[in-house]
Amino acid sequence: MDAEERPGISKNTLDAVSERARLEQELAHAQEELALINQKLEEKGDFGLGEGASTVYEWEMNLALRQAAEAKIESIKAALARLDQGTYGICEVCGQAIDPARLEILPHTTLCVGCAQASR
Ligand SMILES: [Zn+2]
Fold this sequence. Notes:
There is one protein chain. The chain has helices at residues 2-5, 16-47, 53-85, 100-105, 113-118. By secondary structure, the protein is mainly alpha-helical. The chain has two domains: 15-88; 89-120, no CATH class. The longest helix is centred in the middle third of the chain and has 33 residues, at 53-85. Bound molecules: zinc ion. Zinc ion binds at residues 91, 93-94, 96, 111-112, 114-115.
C-alpha cells in the first residue's frame, strides 16, 4: 500500500531543504520548551519550602524535563550537522538509508529500525 502511494521514492531520496526546515523548526520549539522549564526552575527559588514534598517533586520533575530538553536540542543540532555533512538519514551502524517515515517521527535518530531494535 505504502509503495503504491509513493512510487519511485528511492531509499536515499531525502529533501535536504525541507528536512532542514523541519529540524530547525523542531530546534526552535525545543529551545522554547527549555526556556520555559528554566523559567519554572528559577521561579521555584521564591517558593522556598512552602509546599514541602510536592515542591521537591515538581522541582525534580522540572530538572528531569530540562535534561530531556537539553538532550533533545543536542540531538537536533547533531542531526543538522549530519545534514551538512551529507550523512543525515544514514544509519550509523550499518550505513543503510534510514526509512524516511522513521525520520519523520525521530528526526534525530542515527539508527535504522533494524539496528535500533538490535541495540536494545
Ligand atoms: Zn542500521
